[in-house]
Design a protein that fits this description.
Number of strands: 10
Low-confidence stretches: 51-67
Radius of gyration: 20 Å
Oligomer: single chain
Strand content: 25-35%
Order of helices and strands: EHEEHEEEEHEEEHH
Distance between the termini: 44 Å
Shape: globular
Number of helices: 5
Structural class: alpha+beta
Largest sheet: 8 strands, antiparallel, barrel
Length: 285
């Protein structure tokens, strides 16, 4: 497992536990993956430890042809590779049918992994609630939603981060149970001050009670990802607790600038808000 890529090295918590997020999604085939990664490395060199000389207009590597180009691509893939896991939890006790169900929430326990050992103390676990995406309007260029994210840290006196098993115990104590779980494996880039750009495939994981180690050897990605990679653009958490409308408009403008760099390789689009919405599997509706 490679070290955490630069795009996912988060220092500190968001300025506020709840913050606005804007999203765009697209897909790219296996045959276009290397060209996309080279383009991203050229345009967003801050995603790699050292600047890669290349042509931002084409994404062509500055290195020579043949073996040198191959080495260049290998380094991009090595430096930006990531794996993250997400465990989705829902209430154990079903809320009776009625308006009270509007208060139910889905929690996501997630972390970008520094090793395949889920209990590795370097894994920074967070609990996240994804708000309901807003219905897009004719002028919408991105999907908007509110995100509530709580980093799970050690004790106030600087104790170690909680282990994966301790996180599971904590969520169970809140009256929640595992619903489904998956891993994202791919490549992470960052447009400084604007957004992360993730290129990944999704893999199903076994229930969290069965293992504390992630193993994808011989595991195929979910059916929808065969031969395709998801491209996900997500704005970074704002640096201030209060986000005025003009700041949201600027974030959307900056996101569209990122999209411009991907033209010819990826066609981004607004994901259906219903698809992005967390839903609890009630037995009685």
């Amino acid at each position: 497992m490679p070290k955490l890529p630069a795009a996912l090295r988060v220092s500190g918590a968001p300025a506020a536990p709840t913050f606005p997020q804007q999203l765009l999604h697209g897909f790219v085939g296996d045959a276009m993956l290397e060209r996309l990664l080279e383009r991203l490395a050229a345009v967003f060199p801050e995603s790699l430890p050292r600047f890669l000389e290349s042509d931002p207009a084409t994404g062509a590597a500055g290195a020579g042809a043949g073996a040198e180009n191959s080495s260049h691509r290998d380094r991009i893939m090595s430096e930006t590779a990531f794996m993250s896991v997400e465990y989705v939890w829902v209430p154990i006790v079903e809320t009776p049918f009625g308006p009270e169900r509007n208060e139910d929430v889905v929690w996501r326990l997630s972390a970008p992994l520094v090793s395949l050992n889920l209990n590795d103390p370097g894994n920074a676990w967070t609990i996240t609630h994804l708000g309901r995406p807003e219905a897009p309007t004719e002028s919408s260029k991105t999907v908007h939603r509110q995100v509530r994210q709580v980093p799970l840290r050690g004790s106030a006196d600087g104790g170690a981060r909680p282990t994966f098993e301790q996180c599971l115990e904590f969520l169970a104590s809140l009256g929640y149970r595992p619903h489904y779980q998956y891993a994202k494996r791919g490549y992470a880039f960052i447009c400084a001050g604007v957004a992360t750009i993730l290129v990944y495939k999704v893999y199903n994981l076994p229930p969290p009670t069965r293992t504390t180690r992630v193993g994808l050897h011989g595991v195929s990605p979910i059916e929808a990802n065969h031969g395709m990679w998801v491209v996900e653009l997500a704005t970074l958490p704002p640096e201030t607790p209060q986000v005025p409308p003009e700041a949201l408009a600027k974030a959307e403008f900056d996101m569209m600038q990122v999209v411009e760099y991907l033209q010819g390789l990826v066609e981004t689009h607004l994901m259906d808000p219903v698809t992005l919405r967390d839903q609890i599997p009630y037995r009685v509706r």
